[in-house]
Every structure is written in C-alpha cells, then in structure tokens.
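To: structure subgroup
Subject: Chain for Friday's discussion

All,

I'm putting the inputs and outputs inline so they're searchable in the archive.
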Amino acid sequence: MGILSQLAIIHLLLWAAMVVCQHEDYDFGDEYDEEPDHEHPYYFNFHPSTQHEVPHFPIPAQCARECFCPPTFPLSMYCDHRKLTTIPNIPIHIQQLYLQNNDIEAVLAGPFTNATILREINLSYNKIKFHMIDHGVFAKLSNLVQLHLQHNELEEFPFPLPRSLERLLLGFNKISRISRHALEGLPNITMLDLCNNFLDDSALKGKQFSILKNLMQINLCNNRLQTMPPDLPPSLMYLSLENNSISYIPENYFSRLPKIIALRMSHNNLQNIPHNAFNLPNLLELNLGHNKLKQVFYIPRSLQHLYIEDNDIEIINVTLMCPSIDPMNTNQLTYVRVDQNKLTAPISTYAFFCFPHIRTIYYGEQNGNVNKSTQLRTPVFRRFLTPEEYDETEDDHETSDHETEEDHETEDNYFHANFQ
C-alpha cells in the first residue's frame, strides 16, 4: 500500500504540472480575427477565491456571443470595436474585459452580476455619462485593479470605486467636479490620469488628493488650473501639469514632495521661479518650456534633463543654477534645451565645471526682435565623449546637428498613462 500511495502522489503531481497559467496581457495576433469556436468550448479550472491562478474545477469557458474569448487566453474577453450599445453579460471566470471603441452610453449593474474576479476593465472611447453609471457597479468588483474610462462624456469624477483599484484613467472627458468623497476608500491608487478635462482651481479646493497615500503619478495636463494643485501626497513621483494657466509656484511648494522624479509644466504662464523651488533630491526631468521665464533658477544635483525652450531668457546665469561645486557630489545634468529664447551668446564655459556630465545643449533658433529669429553660431553643442561614455549612449536616440522643433515634439507630451 505504501508504494501504491507514493505512485498515486507522483501521478497527481504530474497531472498538476500540466496546468497552464493565464497571462494578464494579450498579444494581438492572427487569432484575434478568428471567430470563437462555440461548438468546442475550452475547459479550464476555477476557484472563486483566486485572483491570479487558473481555477481548479473544470467548467466550460463561456463567452458572450458578441465578443471573442481567445482559447489561449481564456480569462480575457474582447468586445472592442464592435459597435456595441450595451455591455454584454460577463461570464464568471473573466478577469480582463475589453469594451473600448464602441457606442456604449450606460454602465448597468446587470451584466456585472457574476463578474466576481474582474481585474481590468477598458471602457475607453465610448459615450458614457456620469449619471448613466449605476451606483456602486464598480465598487462591488473587489478584485478590480485597473479601470479605463478615458475618451467618454463624464461630467463628474465617477464614484464609489473599489478599494482594490490601483490605476484609474479618466483623461479626455468633461469632468469639472470631484466630490469630496469621490476619492475616499482608495488606499491602493498609484496612478490617476485626469488630463484633458474641465478642472479648475475650485474643483480642487477640497484637497481631495491628499488622502491618496500611495499615489505615485497624477496627470492634470490640459485643464483650466491657474494655481498649483493643493496638498498632493508626499508619495508622488510624477506630476504632469502641462497646458494650464499656472502663473506661479508658491515658496516651498515642493518641500512636501521629496520623491518627485519628473515634473512637467510646459505651456503655462510662469514668469518667476523661486530660486530654490526645485531643491529636490530625486528630480531627473524638469520641463518648463513654453512659459514666460526671464531667468534661470537653482538646478538640483540629481537633474539630468532640463527643458526651458520658448521663454524670455536673455542670459543664462550659471551661478544661479550652480552656486557651488562639490567634486564629491557632482551635478548630473546631461541635456539642456534653450531654443526660442532671447540668447545672444552661448552659455558660459563655467557651466562645464558645474555640470561636468553635459553632453548636449540645444540652442536652435533664438527669438530676436518681433517677427525675427536669430541663430547662434553653434545651434547644437555636443561634448566629446570618452570611449566609455560613447559605449553607454550609442543606443540612445541622439539626434543630428540639424535638430528642429519637430525633432523634440514628442518630448513635450505628457507622461504616458501606462508608465512602467
């Protein structure tokens, strides 16, 4: 009996080894265009308490008639680009639901009745309005991690939402209001995209973002803000505020945001920057292009990329940027873009003592008199690289000496919603 028991255990282990786990991401291949085979349903295991694993009891992998459930990805249901006006019933086993690019106007509770383990929903590019979302329909999805609602017709921040949510994308809507309670109960949110909405200063007076203790990225570009958003959480690492009407940065505003890595504030109305406004220990990228700045400011030692193009700067005072030199803790600045300012001479060579790692300064064309531009003798400065430095950068997207505004256009885009 002992030998038989051991053989039975070995047989059970071999059978378990044949289970193939479900991938979270679907690679769109040729099979996306194939019709689902309803005559031969795919079988997999199910256990309602498991989020990531293929469940344990074999049942047929059902799929909504309007959608496609790839046999190789049985936990995903693709209903996108199908001119749907309503959400189909969602089978109990589905974890990823893709409904983008349809004509859906309402999110009703009925189709989600059995969707107990949904982790991702993509409802972008539809016609959903705030009042057409059944109250609590999302809050009941206790395993939901990512929700896409960008490119809809939402007038208000949707709520309530599940505590499990980590990434919420609401860009390209008509949101002008954020209820005081809309962000309560979201302790796990790390990324919030609100770009291209109708938010103004009054919408943020309630300091709603301060309760998001794990927020790492917030995108507020292309709104109607005139002042900096109040009380952002100290966990923040990426802040996007491009294309607003912000005219000043309060003293010590960033002292409560020590983890900021990238700050983008291009296309605002900034005129003066407090000297030590960006004294941040982790800042790597700073974009203040297309403002009204007249002089430079202190550059933290960690900064690598600085964009101050299209401002009103006539002279770059290197001493303001670098008041002292520390051979044991050198500045890390490698790239500076200063085109479309009012410079008449290149940056002082003292800059290369303060910023020994500079590789490129893009001067481009400078604004002279009205309707007239000038060009410095060296439109692009490139420092000679040592063989070791060249090996490090040979795969980078270094541009040619004929750089133009178009060459840099993509650098002005706001943070991608799916940053890694």
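Points worth raising on Friday:
The radius of gyration is 27 Å.
The first strand starts at residue 43 and ends at 44.

D.
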